[in-house]
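Job type: complex structure
Entries:
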Amino acid sequence: MALLWEVPLVGAGGEPISFARTVHSHGCAQLPPAEVVEDPLRYRRRLRIGERIVALTMEARGNELAVESDLKLGARDAQKARGLVAKMFRLDDDLSPFYAQIAGDERLGWVTAGAGRILASPTVFEDVVKTICTTNCAWSATIRMTTALVELGGGAFPDAALLARTPLKWYNDVARMGYRGPYLRTIAAEVVAGRLDLESFTQRKRYDDETIEELLLELPGVGPYAAAHIMQLLGRHRPLVLDSWTRPAYLRLSGRKRAVDGTIRRAFARYGEYAGLAFWLFLTREWVED
DNA sequence: CGTCCAGGTCTAC
DNA sequence: GGTAGACCTGGACGC
């Protein structure tokens, strides 16, 4: 294990970052090729750097994020790995406006201790594929499909080129993805052809949230739920993720007997561009002990 | 063994 | 723009 990086756990606005809250920010963050290890809390994930597959282990050391690599990396590869970690932890994001908004908020005041960073994958492509693998199936199926994808990728998540050249037979017979297979393969092919630049979707100056939502909804297999979910992973926090998990969770935690989507949206509308994040944090507070 | 449904989406009205 | 019905899979459940 070689120490790759130590970087302050601080966001772009100087706000604190809770390592535990970040690695437990959502379920997809724990899908292969990533995993959360407890005691001490660490986040591990394999990724492809050039020709090699590298296993990175991340943990909090004091107020720093320490990143270790199982392989010794040259300067160029080390730089690339650091860049991917920065993307995953969204180190360039500034949550301080949100924190200022919820300071003293009864429901969400606790968040300002460093919660609210939604851990991303190294690529938007991976998050889009994984999100589609969460739709209309049990979580066990999501794990099965993702595990197959990572096996295809030789231990790392496959890139668009590999998915585009993989025959549909594999999607059906090996990954058992059903109707999702053609969706994912089509998206991969569009990326490879250069007609779809998912990685640019993080660029706030280039695309506003509304545009990104429209572009996401154009993708096969991406509807309102998936678009909102991917938006959260992109750090675009207005849309609420409304699905068969969040709806009952909201009822349980709010004490309401029933609430249609419009009612839930109104309950969080006052958080403005952070409404979706506020909703998600309200639902997941108990995932981590303060 | 059949039906239902799980962190929905698409198509056709 | 709003709403049925179909859709892969496989685990849970009722009969």
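Summary: Residues 75-88 of chain A form the longest helix (14 residues). The longest strand of chain A covers residues 52-61.
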